[in-house]
Design brief:
The chain contains 17 helices and three strands. The chain has helices at 9-14, 25-32, 36-44, 64-77, 82-89, 95-126, 130-140, 144-158, 168-174, 185-198, 201-216, 230-243, 254-268, 274-287, 290-303, 312-324, 330-338, and strands spanning 23-24, 52-53, 59-61. A three-stranded antiparallel beta sheet has the order 1-3-2. Strand 2 (52-53) and strand 3 form a beta hairpin. The protein is rod-shaped and about 115 Å long.
Length: 350
């Protein structure tokens, strides 16, 4: 639309504008459905300027005024501010450009409203204090850039100085939360809790220790950088032991410890022995932080991944077994092998 006479109501009824037709402000109000006060405000703002004045000084408007007012009302209903509307009706800017910019702004508002709705739904379901509500709202409505800076600061601290390890780019990607544009209540709650974990200095130190341990657990001749995941080996060996209720101090645990020690020896490129088993126990102690399991669970919720199994129980069992069966207890290991109930030879994942 524009203020061309071709958009005038007179054009629609007669086929051509009536140049001599002037309307009082009251007549213009009746034609447009706007109040006299509103038209006077737009007139004083310079958006709809009177064409003339009567002998008594009353404003008179030309036939294009109704079309301009219709356009102004539409743009106001769409949320445009008056300075922008004035530039549009005065043709200082193109209406399509303004519409595109405003549509983009509305997309941001819609996204924010959806987040707010998810926050309120979460509060309605779980209940929280005013302080928790404020924190949840602030974290949930962070912009994508703000979330990116928070995540980048956490991961940058955790993996500081480890950039040369070829395996870490994939590890970092696997630890990066990606909140969807329209998160559900569970994802909002998970993101708020995860953001709290990332801001926890103690958790940062703990995860940094795990990362440095992973970097150190690499054979000197390992040029590929492909991780031979220790956690998977621990789970595959300790899970059956837990299922069969084997005590860590039982002779039946000795061959499991030996298999895990052999796997770890292959990772670090060192022979099995007292030092290696102490090193492995210390490494698992660092990994045995319940916040790690919680982080990975929340990450799965946010990213829509299957929920991971926790490691706390298997790590705890394995550390106790390692300390119960040091390398010098060879005789104990032999007794465990001869007395094994299942005859199964534990084999860690390759």
């Amino acid at each position: 639309m524009s203020d061309d006479a071709s958009f005038s109501p007179d054009t629609l009824t007669t086929g051509a504008p009536l140049p001599d037709t002037l309307y009082s402000i009251g007549e213009l109000a009746r034609r447009t459905g706007l109040s006299v006060k509103t038209i006077r405000f737009y007139s004083d703002s310079g958006i709809v300027v009177p064409t003339d004045r009567s002998a008594a000084g009353y404003r008179r408007y030309g036939p294009d005024a109704a079309a301009r007012l219709d356009l102004v009302r539409t743009l106001r209903e769409l949320g445009l501010d008056l300075p922008t509307i004035r530039r549009v009706v005065d043709r200082e800017v193109a209406l399509p450009d303004v519409a595109a910019a405003h549509a983009e702004a509305l997309d941001v508002q819609i996204h924010t409203l959806r987040l707010r709705r998810a926050v309120l739904s979460a509060v309605a379901e779980r209940g929280c204090t005013p302080q928790e509500l404020d924190l949840m709202h602030r974290l949930a409505t962070l912009s994508e850039d703000e979330r990116g800076r928070l995540i980048g600061d956490f991961l940058g601290t955790v993996f500081e100085g480890l950039d040369d390890h070829p395996a870490f780019p994939a590890v970092i990607r696997s630890m990066t939360p990606e909140l969807p544009d329209v998160p559900d209540v569970a994802q909002i709650e998970a993101w708020v809790e995860l953001a709290g974990l990332m801001a926890d200095p103690g958790f940062r130190v703990s995860v940094q220790g795990m990362a440095r341990g992973m970097a150190a657990d690499r054979a000197p001749d390992d040029a590929t950088g492909l991780p031979r995941i220790l956690a998977e080996a621990v789970r595959s060996l300790a899970d059956p032991a837990l299922s069969e209720a084997i005590e860590p101090t039982s002779p039946l645990a000795a061959p499991i410890v030996a298999a895990l020690a052999a796997h770890y020896a292959g990772i670090v490129g060192a022979p099995d022995g007292e030092d290696l088993r102490r090193r492995l126990a210390a490494r698992l102690d660092v990994m045995n932080d319940p916040r790690r399991d919680r982080y990975l669970y929340l990450l799965a919720v946010i990213n829509g991944w299957p929920a991971p199994e926790g490691l706390a129980q298997v790590i705890d069992w394995t550390v106790r077994a390692l300390r119960a069966w040091p390398a010098h207890r060879v005789g104990g290991q032999r007794r465990a092998n001869s007395g094994a109930r299942s005859g199964r030879t534990p084999t860690p994942p390759r």
